[in-house]
Amino acid sequence: MTSIAFIGLGNMGGGMCANLAKKGHDVSAFDLNAEAVARAVEAGASAAQDIEQAVRNAEIVVTMLPAGKHVRQVYLESGGVTDCAAEGSLFIDCSTIAVDDARSVSAEVRKLGFDMVDAPVSGGTAAADAGTLTFMVGGEDDAFERARSILDAMGKNVFHAGASGNGQAAKIANNMLLGVSMIATSEAFNLARKLGLDAQTFFDISSKASGQCWSMTSYCPEPGPVPAAPSNRDYAAGFAVAMMLKDLRLAQEAAKSADAAPPFGGAAEAFYTALDNDGHGGLDFSAAMKRIKGEI
Ligand code: NAD
Fold first, then answer.
1. pTM for this predicted structure
2. Which residue has its alpha carbon closest to ligand 1 atom 21?
3. pLDDT (tens digit, 9 = 90+) per residue, 193-242?
4. What is the spatial distance between Cα 228 and Cα 226, in angstroms, rounded to a whole number?
5. Active site residues
6. What domains lie within the chain, and their CATH numbers?
7. Is the beta carbon of 96 within 6 A of some atom in ligand 1?
């Protein structure tokens, strides 16, 4: 049993914290939102009144926060984690943030004598609740080894991607590929339909041919061929347009600082920005299909 502080008990963190408590860890939970803390207590954690109370006896601190500015604030501001944590504790940030932010926060934390890994996740709230997330981890070998058993309690795949920030790099490169492939899959279904092929026939062929990809076979944006996909539920998210857009923006930001210039990643960012601006940020990102068909 490990003593863990969990900060950020939202859509993702709530389920992750519950899984740590369920596996027998001693979890002290904190969020600015009192209802989220109450849910964590129902799931077996104990309530902390502030960051100090959450972290002071913890061996491991896990955070699951909205964006880079929250991560910086929670770790580095006065009264934050580095001010109050016990000596030798390890920090695991599971939030999706910019690669540069992950690297700079981790460097500052290390200067203060703590170890930190970035461990963003793939998988949505269902995987967070079920404990089946995939973690992509950036950090030193020994920090990764310490983090692994805690991550195993919340996920089914844990990968060490290399040095600090590499977890975030893996996450945004993967999600850029996903955004591009979802739009391309939608374009292919639309073209096939306009040329006289019905969706199931095109799916049967392309899913066994070289166009096969996850966006088609696991999450088909055209209603019908994959019954569990959000396209069969009026594109209820799932993984919302706004969340995809966040990751595509992070990918573009990282690409600029790495001089990588991905034109299709940029086009996908512009496509999802337009969907979001038109009021569709809450739809599942596979609603790309509706935009390609001209329905929204
Ligand atoms: P969320 O907004 O539901 O939860 C974030 C929580 O952090 C909130 O409860 C908020 O009150 C809390 N918080 C913010 N600032 C705080 C502070 N200073 N101190 C304490 N608590 C604070 O977000 P989410 O959907 O759980 O996502 C969390 C992270 O996971 C994001 O970085 C997101 O990009 C990433 N992610 C989300 C999904 C998804 O499907 N929702 C999937 C993969 C990755």
1. 0.95
2. 31
3. 999 999 999 999 999 999 999 999 999 999 999 999 999 999 999 899 99
4. 6
5. 171
6. 3-163 (3.40.50.720), 169-292 (1.10.1040.10)
7. yes
